[in-house]
Specification:
mainly alpha, Gag polyprotein-related
């Protein structure tokens, strides 16, 4: 899955991301939560990533 935020809002991007993840058995497991977060973050626009860059994924 190579979804990018593009010109949509973060909320719209998140909704699309979640709808696509529903089709992936891997991303629907508790073990994949970290990978799912990383994948989501990588698809964000650079200026949004910068704003959350100081937050660490747990």
């Amino acid at each position: 899955m190579e979804l990018k935020q593009g010109n949509v809002s973060v909320a719209e991007y998140a909704a699309k991301f979640e709808s696509l993840c529903a089709f992936s058995p891997y991303y629907n497991t508790p073990e994949a939560e970290y990978d799912k977060c990383v994948k989501f973050e990588r698809g964000l626009r650079p200026e949004v990533k910068h704003l959350i860059g100081f937050s660490e994924i747990r």
